[in-house]
Design goal:
With 488 residues, this protein is α/β, with parallel strands linked by helices. The chain has helices spanning 129-133, 146-150, 160-175, 193-202, 226-239, 246-249, 254-264, 269-278, 295-300, 325-330, 335-341, 346-355, 357-360, 364-378, 380-387, 414-417, 427-430, 436-452; strands at residues 3-8, 13-21, 28-37, 60-62, 92-97, 105-111, 137-141, 181-191, 213-217, 309-314, 393-398, 466-470, 475-478. A hairpin with a 6-residue loop joins strand 2 (13-21) and strand 3.
C-alpha cells in the first residue's frame, strides 16, 4: 500500500508516494512526484508557441504516475529503456526527494538524450532514488522534440524545446525548496542530446541564473546554423504541401509531421557525411535571440565561466553502428576510402592511425566506429575544455568495455551515473554482472560534484591536463585524449 506525501507548489498542491530504496550506503526512503506539469499542454493554439506556465489548480493533483511524453511510439534509437506515454500534457517534471521537509539539499536536474527527436524522462534508469539515498534531490524534465520542438517556422518562436528547458528550470527555481532542495545549488546534467542541451545552457546568457554547475555526458551540441535550420523547415513544410507558417503547419497532424520528419532525417551515405560535419538538422539553432552565436564562441567569450563543468565521453560511442552486415561490408572498403568518407585529412592520417592502434588492429568496423565517435563526441571534450580557459573544468573518459559489445558504447555510462545496475534492460547494454565498484566511482563522483562543485579528481589545466579514466581500475591519466589530438 502506497504511503502518500503532499507538497505545496506555486501552482497547487501535489501528491506523491514514498518507496524504499536500498544501496551500499544503507536503506532510506525516497519520495517520487511524477508528471507535475510546469507548462500548459502544447496543443491547439499553443502547439508551435513558447511554453506557457501552468495555471494554478484547485485541490490536490495526483503525481503518482509518469505523465505524457513528447516521444511517440518507439523510435528505436537508444538502448536505454525510455517508454512513451500517450497524452497531451507533455511538459512536466518528475521530482525525487529523500525528504520534502529538509532544507538546502543539492539538486540534480536531468535532461534526457535522444538526438533531440526521441527520448523520455520516464525511464526507470533516470529514477533519482539512489541520488536521494546520497542526499541529492533529483528532477527529470520533459521537452518538445523533433520539429515541434526545434523546427524553423516563419512566424513561430525559435528553439521551442530550448524554451521548454528554460521554463522547467524556472519551475525548479520557484518550487524545489518545497521538496527539500536548494535553488542556489542546482546542477544540470544530461547525456548525448541531453549533454548537448546542458552545454547549450552553459553558453546561454539568458540561462545563467538557473543553475550553478554542469555535468555533460557524451554531449552532442546542436548549434544548427540559421540558414540550415530555415532550409530544413521550408523543405519539410513543402513536403507536406503547406506554407512554412504556424497556420500552414497546424493543418498537419502530429503523426503527419512525424512521418515527414522521419523521411527528411533518414541517414544515407551523403547525409552521414553532412551529419559529421554539421551535426543533426534538428536541435538548438543559432537564432540571434536565445543563441546569438555558437556555443563554443560563447564559452570563449567567458559565458558560464563561473560554473564548474564535468565533461567526458565513452571511447567507442557509435561503434555499434558498424556491427553485423556493416562490418562485413567494410572489410572490402580500402582504409583510405573509409577515412576519406569520415573526413580525416590525408596529412594527419598516419598520426591518427598510430594514436588509435588499439582499434586499427581490430579491423575496419572498429576503426570506423572510433573515427565517427571522435568526430561527433570525443573531440568536443578537449575543445570545450580549451574554450573555457581557466574556468573550473574536469575531464573524464568512460573506457570500461561492455560485457555485451566488448567496447564502451553510447549510453553505457548512464546506469553507472545513476547507480542503477540492478535496473531493467541492463544486460543488452552492459552484459552480465557489470562492476558495481565502477558504478560506485562514477556515481560517487557525480554526488560529490553536485554537492560540492568538485568531483574529486585533478582539475584540467591545459591541453595535456589530467583526465579521470573510468575502467577497471579507475585511474587518472595525463593527456588521456591524446588519440584525438590529430583531429583537433
Amino acid at each position: 500500500m502506497t504511503e502518500y506525501v503532499e507538497v505545496q507548489t506555486a501552482a497547487g498542491r501535489v501528491r506523491g508516494g514514498w518507496r524504499p530504496t536500498t544501496g551500499g550506503r544503507g536503506a532510506v526512503r525516497s519520495a517520487a512526484f511524477l508528471g507535475i506539469p510546469f507548462a500548459e499542454a502544447p496543443i491547439g493554439d499553443l502547439r508551435f508557441q513558447a511554453p506557457v506556465p501552468k495555471a494554478p489548480w484547485e485541490g490536490v493533483l495526483d503525481a503518482l504516475e509518469f505523465a505524457a511524453t513528447a516521444q511517440r511510439g518507439d523510435p528505436g534509437v537508444t538502448l536505454i529503456p525510455e517508454p512513451s506515454v500517450e497524452g497531451d500534457s507533455t511538459l512536466n517534471v518528475n521530482v525525487f526527494t529523500p525528504d520534502p521537509t529538509a532544507a538546502g539539499l543539492p539538486v540534480l536536474v536531468w535532461i534526457h538524450g535522444g538526438g533531440y527527436f526521441a527520448g523520455s524522462p520516464a525511464s526507470p534508469w533516470y529514477d533519482g532514488r539512489n541520488f536521494n539515498r546520497d542526499g541529492v534531490v533529483t528532477v527529470s524534465i520533459s521537452y518538445r522534440l523533433g520539429f515541434d520542438g526545434f523546427g524553423w517556422i516563419e512566424d513561430a518562436p525559435s528553439n521551442r524545446g530550448v524554451r521548454d528547458w528554460l521554463l522547467a528550470l524556472e519551475w525548479v527555481q520557484q518550487n524545489i525548496a518545497a521538496f527539500g532542495g536548494d535553488p542556489g545549488r542546482v546542477t544540470i546534467a544530461g547525456q548525448s542530446a541531453g549533454g548537448g542541451a546542458v552545454l547549450t545552457l552553459l553558453g546561454m546568457e539568458k540561462a545563467q541564473h538557473l543553475f550553478h554547475g554542469v555535468y555533460a555526458i557524451s554531449g552532442a551540441l546542436g548549434d544548427v546554423a540559421a540558414p540550415r535550420a530555415e532550409a530544413f523547415g521550408r523543405a519539410l513544410a513543402a513536403s507536406g504541401g503547406v506554407p512554412p507558417t504556424v497556420a500552414g503547419l497546424s493543418t498537419l497532424s502530429e503523426d503527419r509531421v512525424l512521418a515527414l520528419q522521419k523521411k527528411a532525417t533518414q541517414l544515407g551515405p551523403s547525409s552521414m557525411t553532412t551529419m559529421i560535419e554539421e551535426g543533426l538538422p534538428l536541435g538548438p539553432a543559432i537564432d540571434g535571440d536565445l543563441l546569438p552565436r555558437p556555443t563554443r564562441e560563447s564559452l570563449r567569450a567567458g559565458v558560464g565561466a563561473d560554473k564548474p563543468l564535468v565533461i567526458g565521453a565513452a571511447d567507442d560511442e557509435f561503434t555499434m553502428a558498424f556491427a553485423g552486415r556493416a562490418a562485413k561490408a567494410l572489410r572490402w572498403v580500402p582504409q583510405a576510402v573509409l577515412l576519406n568518407r569520415f573526413g580525416v585529412p590525408k596529412r594527419i592520417r598516419a598520426q591518427y592511425l598510430a594514436a588509435n592502434s588499439d582499434v586499427v588492429r581490430l579491423g575496419k568496423a572498429r576503426l570506423a566506429g572510433r573515427v565517427l565517435t571522435d568526430r561527433m563526441f570525443r573531440t568536443s571534450v578537449p575543445r570545450i575544455a580549451g574554450d573555457r580557459g581557466d574556468a573550473p573544468t574536469w575531464l573524464y573518459r568512460f573506457s570500461w568495455p561492455s560485457g555485451h559489445f566488448g567496447f564502451a558504447e553510447h549510453c553505457l555510462d548512464v546506469p553507472f551515473f545513476f547507480d542503477c545496475l540492478d535496473g531493467p534492460s541492463m544486460e543488452p547494454l552492459a552484459g552480465p554482472n557489470p562492476p558495481q565498484e565502477l558504478a560506485d566511482d562514477v556515481h560517487g563522483a557525480a554526488v560529490a560534484f553536485v554537492s560540492t562543485g568538485d568531483p574529486g579528481w585533478t582539475r584540467h589545466d591545459g591541453d595535456a591536463g589530467v583526465v579521470r579514466v573510468y575502467d577497471r581500475p579507475t585511474r587518472e591519466v595525463s593527456d588521456a585524449y591524446a588519440s584525438v589530438r590529430a583531429l583537433l
